[in-house]
Amino acid sequence: MNIWPAIRIGLLDMRGDLRRFLLLVVCLAVGTALIAGVNSVGASITSAIEEGAAELMGGDIEISRADRLATAEELASLSELGRTVLVIDTNLRAESFTSEAFADVSVVGPSYPCLARW
């Protein structure tokens, strides 16, 4: 079986569409490069946040519960470890007459952040 006639017919058929094919290849290359760039930037931001979490968040340890607030006994035992701050986070849907959006709301205690002042 000779494959050259099939290649010849394929090239003749693609003759007018070669520019479109090259444009498709260029678009795929640019799209792949953009996705790789976004992933790289996201990874570097995540790394920076993980390395500087104590400075950014203002403490060394974070303890959280999603189901309820801490009891008085739990807060007393945590206070024995050092200075503590109560932080309450919630998410909600904000709505106006023309649009709506989801928002995260955080309320912090008066001793936030827990960083030592020099």
From TrEMBL:
Keywords: Membrane, Transmembrane, Transmembrane helix. The keyword Transmembrane applies. The chain crosses the membrane at residues 21-38. This is MacB-like periplasmic core domain-containing protein. It comes from Devosia aurantiaca.
